[in-house]
Structure formats: C-alpha cells, structure tokens
Amino acid sequence: xxxxxxxxxxxxxxxxxxxxxxxxxxxxxxxxxxxxxxxxxxxxxxxxxxxxxxxxxxxxxxxxxxxxxxxxxxxxxxxxxxxxxxxxxxxxxxxxxxxxxxxxxxxxxxxxxxxxxxxxxxxxxxxxxxxxxxxxxxxxxxxxxxxxxxxxxxxxxxxxxxxxxxxxxxxxxxxxxxxxxxxxxxxxxxxxxxxxxxxxxxxxxxxxxxxxxxxxxxxxxxxxxxxxxxxxxxxxxxxxxxx
Length: 243
Fold this sequence. Notes:
It comes from Skermanella stibiiresistens SB22. This is GntR family transcriptional regulator. This protein has helices spanning 13-26, 39-46, 50-62, 83-99, 105-126, 129-142, 149-165, 170-191, 197-212, 216-242, and strands spanning 66-69, 75-78. It is elongated. Helix 7 (149-165) runs antiparallel to helix 8. A hairpin with a 5-residue loop joins strand 1 and strand 2. Strands 1-2 form a two-stranded antiparallel sheet. The protein folds into two domains: 10-78, Arc Repressor Mutant, subunit A; 83-242, Four Helix Bundle (Hemerythrin (Met), subunit A). It is mainly α. The longest helix has 27 residues, at 216-242. Helices cover 70% and strands 3% of the residues.
C-alpha cells in the first residue's frame, strides 16, 4: 500500500486523509483500478472515525480520483482519468474564481484571446468537414431570432468548442474547453442585456469564413474584434450597474 498513514489533526482530518490518498494516486504509488483499503482499515490506520474516512472518500470522488463499486468484489478503486471530468472540474473552479473576483473579466478576456488566437491558426490549418459543419450549425442557430438568450449562450459555447476541436490538438482542446465552458457563460451573463446577438453572430461568421478559407490571420483578426466588442459591452454593463 502506497499511502502514507501520518497522524492527522481532527478538525481537518478528512481533508488531510484525502490529500494523502490523492498524493499517492498522483505520484503512482496507487495504480489505476487499484482497490483502496476498506473504510474500517483506513479509519484504523489513520486513527480516525469511519464518518471522517467517508468524508475523505467523498472529496476524492468529487475530484473524480476514485470510483466505488458494489457487491462482493466491490469497494473504492482508483479511477481511470476521464478528460471530460477533469475539464469540468477545471471549468467549475475557474467559474468560481471569476465569481469571487480572483480573476478580473479583463484578465480573462486577454488570456482567452491569446489562447484562442493560437486555436484559430491551428484550426485554419487542420479543420475537417465535421468541424465546419458544427460551426455552421451553431451560426444558423444564432441567426434564429426565435431562440432564447439562454439558447444563444449555449450555442455560443458550442461554436467556440467546435473551433477549438478543429485544431486537432487534444491537449489544447482539453484546456480550452475548460476555459470556454467556464468563461463564456459568465461573460454572457454580465453583458447579455447590452450586447447585440446579430453583432456576435456576425463576428462568428467572419471567424467561420476565415477557417473555411484556411486563413488563420483573418480568423485572429475577427476574434480580436469580437473580444474588443465584449470588453466594450462589459464596461457598459458595469457602468449601468453603478448608475
């Protein structure tokens, strides 16, 4: 067993136990699909109660580091990494940090512009028909005046996800999916009263045309214009709130 069974402080015992097991997973002392000791064994080795162990296991499950299985051969096992779960966790953490003010929306826009500019260039070179079809579908949806603002926001997210997928770079897709999922809804929530949906769709149309033409620089220019527009609407929204 690769877990270090150190004495823990009762007030934060569950957190310390979870961190100890997490460290064992991340550095390879615990292998994928390896079964953890039972709750009784963990409680005995860490010198804590079973409810404390259960709380620690809940923390690990929430981080998608372990999974449980019922039955005679059941128990808690080290989970195989799932990119979508990791991306969701990162997106949720990023959303929270934006909400509490750890990241300013201006910082977010700058970071996203730089990252998505790379995506535009790669997408222009590597895009396939499936990516163009996905982007066209979302653009058509955004042109539909009958859709709600919530549906428009969801389509906005899917458009940018399709752009990122068109890069053909799995790691970049993982990182950018987290960024888009976390920041696009937050941005839309702040500016939806002052932004014009037709204008947003127009920027998306320019981005799509550039990707279709394999013109990465034109895509970057359209993206820069989109981010500048969003920044302006953000400032306008804040001014309205202050007045």
